[in-house]
Write a structure and sequence with these properties.
heterodimer, A: 214 residues, mainly alpha, 51% helix, flat, B: 288 residues, 3-stranded parallel sheet, 47% helix
């Protein structure tokens, strides 16, 4: 039986509202009591370095929610992982082991977590339905939030997204024979991007600034 | 058959051959494509890394735009398709998340109810149009061509979500290739990843992964690789020189095409209209 299937309700510590799950509670606090989170973080953790301990706990909880029978390091995930074959020092099995032992800080700072191809093979192969892919995704998110590491390519694309609605401007491309062509030359119409970028950005900012851990 | 076309960032800003061939070939098979005005990035994988909730917002926003038109959405990219399917699942099972997203969508006057379906190009071609109708439209069968199908990971994984093809034995793309008169054989590396995603943070890893798949395809005697995913296409088509330099293997020289380009050729459409001249791999080998 997984922990997630147990019936329970949780009470919000700030307004006594009852919530059906940890996730719902996190969303509720992140949206309704954001100021409380800021106070809490300031009071108990003071600075960013300690925030890592907090997110480690969050991560451990997220993972133990997944299944009672935790990873026995059978290596099925690593056998199917394309990155493990191409890059020394990356195996999904080791990542799960490090997270399980609470040794997350080094992972968060390392660029290893950014080499995953998102092929989802590990998730398919795990006999215990643990997903190294999802763990890597959480680690990436935490690393980016804490400000440890967020690859430049990601940063640049996200900046463009805020400005244009898409991750890059339409490019002028080169053919095999060296001719340079753009959408217009090829008879393709102009992009119909979000018309009101001010509102588009406002909406994204509103959500992205929430302290919601998903 | 009428769909809201969602080319996605990569297709509409650089993979013009895919967009051209989709717009040329699909209408001839009875598919009406409606542009999705105001569409944005789906949020995966770049925005999702920084803000999981912002990612869900972006995908929901595009689904809401399709919903406003009363149409199912047709993303051309495997990544966008997976992103939409995941977000649709999350919003449908989590009322609170849906409310939060809808509160934010109202800033742009939008609302997500989950009424639009999400379709993949393989589903349209294989399940809705069908091989028989495609065979009827073929005027120039691609005889004596042995081609490798590369559906791309997210066309068949993860199996717990509804994906366009079977995760253990994806073969829709193979069958679509056969419908054009070409040969398509199963091969052990078919489900292997293209390696595209880490190209941003670790290009060498990407090139090694793509290179090993291209090498396998060459060793099996295939004359080309066929895909429907712009990311897989991008690394296989445009990075073969880099793969050659990195691995020292100068014999990797595999023509790479979008299925819709191949379909258009078999239907007798001029190569230029299908953007064949934009493919950087040696596709002229396939045209003769």
């Amino acid at each position: 039986m997984t922990y997630a299937s147990l019936p329970y309700v949780l009470k919000c510590p700030y307004c006594d509202e009852m919530l059906p799950s940890h996730k719902a509670l996190r969303v509720h606090i992140g949206t309704t009591h954001r100021d409380k989170i800021d106070e809490f973080m300031e009071e108990f953790f003071g600075g960013r370095s300690i925030e890592v301990d907090f997110v480690t706990l969050m991560l451990q909880r997220a993972i133990s929610d997944l299944t009672e029978e935790f990873c026995d390091q059978c290596d099925e995930c690593t056998v199917g992982c394309p990155i493990s074959k191409a890059v020394e020092g990356f195996t999904p099995r080791q990542i799960v082991a490090k997270v399980r032992s609470g040794d997350v800080k080094e992972l968060l700072k390392s660029d290893i977590i950014w080499t995953c191809t998102s092929c989802l093979t590990c998730k398919e192969r795990c006999p215990y339905e643990i997903s190294p892919y999802d763990i890597v995704t959480i680690l990436r998110n935490l690393s980016a939030r804490i400000g440890y590491h967020f690859p430049k390519g990601y940063k640049d694309r996200d900046k463009k997204l805020y400005r244009l609605g898409v991750i890059q401007e339409p490019q002028t491309i080169q053919t095999r024979t060296g001719e340079r062509l753009d959408r217009e030359n090829l008879g393709l119409s102009e992009l119909k991007l979000p018309s009101d970028m001010e509102r588009f950005t406002e909406a994204l900012n509103k959500l992205s600034s929430m302290r919601v851990i998903y | 058959m009428k769909y809201a076309l969602f080319p996605g960032c990569t297709v509409q800003t650089e993979q013009y051959g895919y967009e051209l061939s989709v717009r040329e070939a699909l209408p001839r098979l009875g598919v009406e494509l409606v542009d999705l005005d105001g569409a944005s990035c789906c949020g995966f994988p770049y925005f999702s890394a920084a803000s999981p909730i912002g990612w869900r917002y972006l995908s929901a926003r595009n689904l809401a735009l399709a919903e406003r038109l009363g149409l199912d959405i047709l993303p051309l990219c495997n990544g966008c398709h997976l992103s939409f399917c995941e977000v649709q699942r999350d919003l449908n099972k989590d009322e609170e998340l849906k409310n939060l997203i809808n509160q934010t969508l109202s800033i742009e006057g939008l609302e997500y109810e989950g009424e639009s379906g999400i379709v993949h190009i393989l589903e349209i071609l294989h399940d809705k149009i069908g091989e028989e109708k495609i065979v009827e439209k073929v005027v120039k069968p691609l005889k004596n061509l042995k081609l490798a199908a590369h559906p791309g990971c997210h066309a068949f994984r993860p199996s717990y979500l509804k994906r366009p093809d079977n995760s253990r034995d994806p073969k829709k793309l193979d069958e679509l290739i056969l419908a054009l008169g070409a040969e398509s054989l199963d091969y052990p590396e078919k489900r292997d990843c293209c390696g595209f995603y880490p190209s941003i943070s670790n290009e060498k890893a990407s090139l090694l992964i793509a290179g090993s798949k291209l090498k396998a395809i060459r060793d099996h005697g295939f004359e080309g690789l066929v895909t429907t995913c712009p990311h897989c296409f991008k690394i296989f088509d445009s990075k073969q020189h880099d793969i050659q330099s990195l691995t020292g293997d100068k014999t990797i020289n595999v023509p790479v095409v979008y299925y819709t380009q191949l379909l258009g050729l078999a239907m007798g459409i001029q190569p230029e209209k299908l953007g064949i001249h934009l493919n950087l791999s040696p596709v002229q080998q396939l045209l003769t």
